[in-house]
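Entry 12.
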Amino acid sequence: MVLVAQWQSSRLWLIFRNRFVAIFNILAYYSHMPIVNCKICNYGFYAKPNWLKRGEGKYCSNKCSYEGRKNGEIVNCSTCNKKIYKSQKDLKSSKSKKYFCSKSCQAIWRNKEFSGERHANWKKGESVDYKRVLLRHNITPICKICLNEDKRVLCVHHIDKNRKNNNLRNLMWLCYNCHYLVHNYKIKI
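Predicted 3D structure (tokens):
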């Protein structure tokens, strides 16, 4: 009896009693909460009664909650056949009803689909690289008006404004600024 009294008054008894009471309180707290199975992964978890009254407490984690909110479909990429998820909004807003996993797959499809006559800038099959024509004949790339030598801003101007007339006497180098001025402000060369 003396040993029990000594042990109960000791510090160890206080620590043990406090931990036991804490564990008992936790068990009592969770005993009022029902165990609910997650709708996605079927994992059992405790859900507070007020969550269930509000229609919540369906998912065990944020990850499962995110998966549960998805209402789209898994579709194949039109270029590489990779499986991808698309939301209902994405499925409805697609004009071509083709879906892509990345911008590069979309660009590959677009380059095949809109080439030649289907391209917006198609000019009846006439494609001549005028810069190459002038460079091949060793005409130095310098703007005839402002004498700019920067090749990045130089373009070829047709003197008679007829794109089909590609004689060397009809072609000349102009920078983009001077080219705009010649066409829109009728500056003489």
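Annotation: The helical segments are 2-9, 11-31, 49-53, 62-69, 88-93, 103-113, 130-136, 176-185. The longest helix spans residues 11-31.
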